[in-house]
Amino acid sequence: MSGHILIVDDDPNIREVIGFAAEKSGFTTGFAEDGLAALKIAARDAPDLIVLDVGLPEMDGLEVCKAIRKTSDLPILFLTARDDEIDRIIGLELGGDDYVTKPFSPRELMARIKAILKRSQMAIPEEARAISVGDLQIDTAKHQCLLAGQEVALTASEFSLLHALMQRPSNVVSRPQLVGALYGVNVHVSDRTIDSHIRNIRSKLAGVGCADSIVTVHGVGLRMGACKLA
Question: Which of 60, 113, 144, 151 is the most exposed, fewest CB within 10 Å of its CB?
Fold first, then answer.
């Protein structure tokens, strides 16, 4: 896998460790040490993914994410302190694709990066590219989500989760199955991560008139709702 990764952290040692691991995995890299520089470099270099520390000078990572999400669905992986769970959840709700806590394993970080990029670049057979449920349609070739013809902006992770649910809309899909759809096997991800993405999808679809997009079946998992405009 190839691509360009922007690594944003105010600690030069962390930038060096991530940069070495990324380049060893076949990626090219760029670096920024604060939030304002990250926005300028992202606009200039158009990276394929940003590794973004939450605790940055000048402008913190959450504000950087908010600024990027105004114009782009560029994949964002947050780095957070181990005890800052609230930052992890807020980061996902602002549109982050994933997070890794410090201290981290470079190997795990690269696995998460590759999983995000695989989701955003995945090739889907022609016959499976457009799926509809009620008034909701997704087109994987265009990475486009439409509700009654109105486009709904989704991150790569949100899009992949919605795609996994819409493939079998009447079936209940468990959270471990949704984790597998996002990351593959042998990756531990908190249920809170999946729940944050699902809240984002529901909120975005409700914002354009669909209040029954995803149904929770307590103790079992999630399935698609009727997806009809209110």
Answer: 151
